[in-house]
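Sample pair:
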Amino acid sequence: MRIVMVLTSHSELGNTGEKTGFWLEEFAAPYYAFVDAGVEVVIAAPEPSEPPVDPRSQAPENQTEATERFQQDAAAQAKLAHPIPLEQVSVTDTDALFFPGGHGPMWDLATSDATTQLVEAFYAQGKVIGAVCHGPAALVNAKTPQGDSILKGKKLTAFTNAEERAVQLDHVVPFALETRLRELGGEFSRAQTFQPHVVTDGTLVTGQNPPSSAATALGVVKLLNQVPA
């Protein structure tokens, strides 16, 4: 099996002068969940340069067993340094897409035509799509062949409005992700702030926040193992 993890290339946190990017744990925990399940992992991004890591996710208090494993994994670091372009992702040869979070996706993956086309292609072929925290921002412009949002009527979750307020970035992000997902017709559910919560609906698996990242990835693996070869 083969999974493409799509990471943000965006590094500016709005107009704050601070940096953002992808959240390290939300990449590392799913990456190793996939690798340990025997899945081939490909990393893709909008830009050919190494995807930026949110500096806050590198703080000591945000380190986990998975992030520490990544810091010792030269092969994984080399793979991260050279992502493939989104346009080179083969839908035919790939079993699932996975979007880690961090605030970066709110700016580039949410507005990228290449991301939207990729999501629509995977959705049309009934392939598994996973996303955690702000990762579901990559799905907001994707539509069905009939022109509806692919999220309409879907049970899902993501980083909540309450969590955005808790990290004091609700006035920095370009839109409120929970609100947008609801506006698109998504049946949004949530756990308490920063508690793990994962929702699977058909071939869509979404997780609420960093504590949900490993479980979201395992939900993707579970679906893949149910798909006939």
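The helical segments are 24-36, 65-71, 74-81, 113-124, 161-166, 177-183, 213-226.
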